[in-house]
Design goal:
about 10% strand, elongated, 3-stranded antiparallel beta sheet, 10 strands, alpha+beta, Alpha-Beta Plaits
């Protein structure tokens, strides 16, 4: 890229030199202009610089003439030599102006000043001329690009980018030359004003082109989204992005030059930031930040005035719809509970509560979605996003989904219900509530235990209260010396006297075991589930009191110990 820049600059300077340096050469060849200071270091240096300019002029004319008669490869070589020649010419001109300032501090140099001013003025004229020429060339290539097929537009866009880069270099050269002219005391106010006006117009033009490029890029992206295999749109998108980047960079370069000329660019930079949405550099400029803040505040205020009433009404409708569906949900819940209570369907309380809850939630969710649609929120992308989010969340929450599936299985097979006394997951307690993820138990000492459904379904489920009746198993022992028929009759009498013991099935009283310490009877009455512990405790108490009253003992565990004396068996010695 730098070679191309040097090439353009070289052509410009050589063309400028070819205009005015021949005349200067006639005046300076073999002659010292600074007569008063001949022999001094500064004067000798001035004369040496003028001689270098004459040499550069001659060499530039020779190379320009040679380019007309050489082939393409040699043509490129000469361009590179011209670029190198310009680099030396630039340094020579700047050094000439600096030395003029040094000399004039000691003594006026009118003849030298005329020649230096003439060199700078004519160079500036040629730079301005070349700038206009480049602008025309850029417009020509743009027209060619507009009419060219897609496969050729990228190459033409690269030409526009290169020419734009060269143009930025010449704008910078124009500003630099004006600075040198101002430094030696030349009147440059009018030229500065012209440059400011041209750069301001260029910024306006580039802002429009950037906006157009952004629209084109968005359109092509939508086109590729609809038709992913559209090769023409893909090529045009690359070209449009290239154009967007080039114009944005050129606008920044122009604004930087305007900043150096003390032009307030806050307005332009805020527009640039608003168009490109690139605030990285603009936020470093206080004026730009202030301007953007004012624009944002004004846009927000205008938006509130313009769309505020409509937004307010949408919010009102949103709230009213949700409130309406909340009322509908409550009425539906109450109605469903009454219908299920009167229905012949065998719903467990657990399944009924779950069914009513989920139906209510589904209705409320429908109301929420309807409310969103009424305020203008598109449901398609929302549902698609929920689907993707659901997949991600489901993958991350595999254990939770396992609990969910286990909860569904529990609802279908109904191993227990609300209020049942169960032994599940190593916990013994009453089922307090359940959802699709977990089951909450209250232990007999009123502790709340939450158990994941997967742990319950994957283990043994013991439902103590699943049946309406339950057998009460008890064992009572009497001593071996007590009357067995009498004890048996007493136990049967105790069972008959208890109203909570069921007649059917009939209670069982049997001699069960001859234990180590006692003769054991098994007593097995039947009772309703809710009467189980009352029967157990009442019968146990009655047995103790009755046995005590009838002199029937309940032996403690005992063991008989026999001591064997070995000496007693040994005969006495004679």
């Amino acid at each position: 890229m730098k070679i191309y820049r040097f090439f353009i600059i070289a052509i410009t300077i050589v063309l400028a030199l070819s205009i005015f340096y021949p005349a200067q050469a006639d005046k300076t060849t073999g002659k010292n202009i600074v007569k008063e200071m001949a022999g001094k270091d500064a004067g000798a240096k001035i004369n040496n610089l003028l001689a270098q300019i004459n040499q550069i002029t001659a060499e530039g004319k020779r190379l320009n003439a040679a380019m007309k008669s050489v082939g393409n490869e040699d043509h490129q070589v000469i361009k590179l030599r011209l670029a190198k020649l310009w680099h030396g010419a630039e340094k020579t001109i700047l050094s000439l102006a600096d030395n003029l300032i040094k000399l004039e501090k000691k003594k006026p140099q009118p003849e030298l000043r005329l020649q230096v001013e003439s060199v700078l003025s004519q160079t500036l004229t040629r730079v301005k001329s070349e700038t206009e020429h480049l602008e025309k060339q850029i417009n020509i290539v743009r027209e060619q690009r507009r009419a060219a097929p897609p496969e050729q537009r990228y190459a033409l866009e690269l030409q526009v980018v290169r020419l734009t880069d060269y143009l930025d270099v010449f704008w910078g050269r124009n500003f630099h030359l004006l600075g040198e002219m101002t430094q030696i005391g030349m009147d440059t106010d009018s030229e500065y004003e012209i440059l400011k006006q041209k750069l301001s117009r260029r910024v306006e033009e580039l802002a429009g082109r950037i906006s157009l490029s952004l629209v084109r890029v968005d359109d092509l992206k939508m086109r590729l989204k609809d038709i992913p295999d559209d090769a023409e749109a893909a090529k045009l998108l690359v070209v449009s992005k290239k154009s967007l980047g080039s114009n944005s960079e050129s606008m920044t370069n122009a604004l930087n030059l305007l900043d150096k000329m003390h032009v307030n660019t806050a307005e332009y930079r805020s527009r640039q930031a608003s168009i490109t949405q690139d605030f990285s550099t603009s936020l470093l400029n206080v004026g730009v930040v202030t301007k953007l803040s004012r624009q944002a505040s004004k846009a927000m205020f205008d938006g509130v005035l313009e769309r505020g009433p409509a937004v307010f009404m949408k919010i009102v409708f949103f709230v009213l719809i949700l409130y309406f569906f909340r009322i509908v949900t409550r009425l539906l819940r109450a109605g469903m509970e009454k219908i299920l209570d009167k229905s012949d369907l065998k719903f467990t309380k657990l399944a009924r509560d779950m069914f009513v809850t989920w139906i209510s939630r589904i209705v409320m969710m429908f109301g929420f979605v309807l409310a969103l649609s009424q305020v203008g929120i598109s449901l398609g992308p929302l549902l698609a996003g929920l689907g993707v989010a659901g997949f991600v969340v489901g993958f991350a929450l595999q254990d939770t989904l396992s609990n969910f599936a286990s909860g569904m299985m529990i609802l279908v097979y109904r191993p227990y219900d609300i209020g049942d006394l169960v032994d599940v997951g190593g916990v013994f307690g009453i089922v307090n509530r359940m959802n699709l993820v977990s089951t909450t138990l209250l232990t007999l000492d009123n502790q709340m235990i939450v158990i994941p459904n997967s742990k319950i379904w994957g283990d043994v489920i013991k439902n103590v209260t699943a049946q309406k009746t339950r057998r009460v198993d008890m064992v009572f022992g009497i001593s071996y010396s007590d009357d067995i028929p009498k004890a048996e009759a007493l136990l049967e009498e105790i069972l008959k006297s208890n109203d909570k013991i069921l007649k059917d099935p009939e209670p069982v009283v049997k001699l069960h075991e001859l234990g180590a310490s006692s003769v054991d009877f098994v007593v097995r009455p039947w009772a309703l589930v809710e009467d189980y512990w009352d029967v157990y405790w009442d019968v146990t108490r009655a047995v103790k009191l009755t046995f005590d009253a009838e002199d029937i003992s309940i032996p403690f565990p005992q063991r008989d110990v026999h001591i064997y004396n070995e000496n007693a068996l040994v005969p006495a010695a004679e």
